[in-house]
Design goal:
Pathway: Protein modification; protein ubiquitination
Domain SOCS box: 276-316
Helix content: 40-55%
Pfam family, one: Ank
InterPro entries: Ankyrin-SOCS_box_domain (IPR051573), Ankyrin_rpt (IPR002110), Ankyrin_rpt-contain_sf (IPR036770), SOCS_box (IPR001496), SOCS_box-like_dom_sf (IPR036036)
Number of strands: 4
Radius of gyration: 22 Å
Organism: Branchiostoma belcheri (Amphioxus)
Structural class: mainly alpha
Distance between the termini: 47 Å
Oligomer: single chain
Shape: elongated
CATH class of the largest domain: Mainly Alpha
CATH architecture of the largest domain: Alpha Horseshoe
Length: 338
């Protein structure tokens, strides 16, 4: 799988990466085993991968089983990695109850959460997150769980990750100055529901522009409008970007806006039409209110003492109502009033 020509971290079931091939410095950290003899599969690895919950329970009642719970095999996988990859919920519960480490990576920097996301095992993802697994995965992995879920169009998993604190703009995949955030993952595979949900959850539609201008004043980088055109997304994507405040006039490295691109499509025509039309006062006010709340509080807009129609408009229910869930937490009213 590739994004802008750079491979996204992925699992090859047949390819093994020896521990001595790890990047310098990593082979000596606590997250990796340097002794290959210790890294071989244990019986707990085998039964966890098979999903034999009864046998896992039996093994965990023994001293040998307890000693194996966080042992790595020659893929760097603990039993929890294998159970998560195969979607064995009951085995995961047993391992978690017995203090399996939730956030350690395998040799490809994949945590159990990321492996469960790649397998689209919704229940397993939820169990791991509720047990305290990091929704952002391992810091050295190219692919975050949220990016993978958005790429796959797994809306339920996207929702769970965001609800448990996943950073909607986090990505380690870069092409030049362009950062391929989860929003971009939803664009390239045309995952409209995930695209909507990420925007409603506070994903920055100007992330690359804001990041580049902060780090490299005066440098240009393509926008998500450019990506929508190049990946032949329907006009609805461009409309949503505009409604969420994306800069329609942002110029790429070739000094072209998305409207200047030489593509013949309804989306380009729609972008050109939008470029000639100023934002409505309603849209401008909505962007101002949401911008002042910030992405940490925007999901709690329904808690404000406002008319239902106004709350629905601020939550983009006219455009995104079918993908929105509710999240509880904190006292938004007092936060806003102070």
């Amino acid at each position: 799988m590739f994004a802008f020509g750079r491979p996204v971290a992925d699992v090859s079931e047949n390819a093994r990466i020896p521990l001595n091939m790890l990047p310098p410095g990593q082979e000596s950290t606590a997250c990796w085993r340097s002794n290959v003899d210790e890294a071989l599969d244990t019986e707990l690895h085998h039964v966890a991968e098979r999903g034999d919950a009864a046998e896992v329970k039996n093994l965990l009642s023994t001293e040998e089983g307890q000693a194996s719970i966080n042992r790595r095999n020659d893929y760097g996988c603990m039993p929890l990695h294998l159970a998560a990859a195969q979607g064995h919920q009951e085995v995961i519960r047993l391992l978690v109850r017995n203090k399996a480490k939730l956030n350690f990576p395998d040799v490809k920097a994949q945590t159990p959460v990321l492996l469960a996301v790649k397998g689209r095992h919704v229940g397993c993802v939820r169990i791991l997150l509720e047990a305290g697994a990091n929704p952002n995965g391992w810091q050295n992995s190219l692919c975050t769980p949220l990016y993978q879920a958005a790429l796959d169009g797994s809306l339920e998993i996207v929702r769970d990750l965001v609800t448990h604190g996943a950073d909607v703009d986090l990505s380690h995949i870069r092409v030049g100055l362009f950062v391929c955030t989860p929003l971009y993952g939803a664009i390239i595979h045309k995952r409209l529901d995930c695209f909507k949900f990420l925007l409603c959850s506070g994903a920055d539609p100007n992330y690359n522009k804001n990041r580049v201008q902060k780090m490299f004043p005066g440098r240009a980088v393509q926008s998500f409008f450019h990506a929508v055109v190049k990946h032949k997304c329907p006009p609805e994507y461009a409309h949503l970007l505009m409604e969420f405040g994306a800069d329609l006039h942002q110029r790429d490295e070739m000094d072209k806006t998305a409207a200047d691109l030489h593509f013949k499509s309804d989306t380009v025509d729609y972008i050109r039409e939008m470029a000639a039309t100023p934002l409505t006062l309603k849209t401008t006010c909505r962007l101002f209110i949401r911008g002042n709340l910030g992405k940490e509080k925007v999901s709690r807009l329904p808690e404000l003492p406002l008319p239902t129609k106004l709350v629905d408009y601020l939550m983009y229910k006219p455009e995104c109502g079918e993908v929105l869930g509710t999240t509880a937490g904190g006292d938004l009213v007092s936060d806003v009033q102070t």
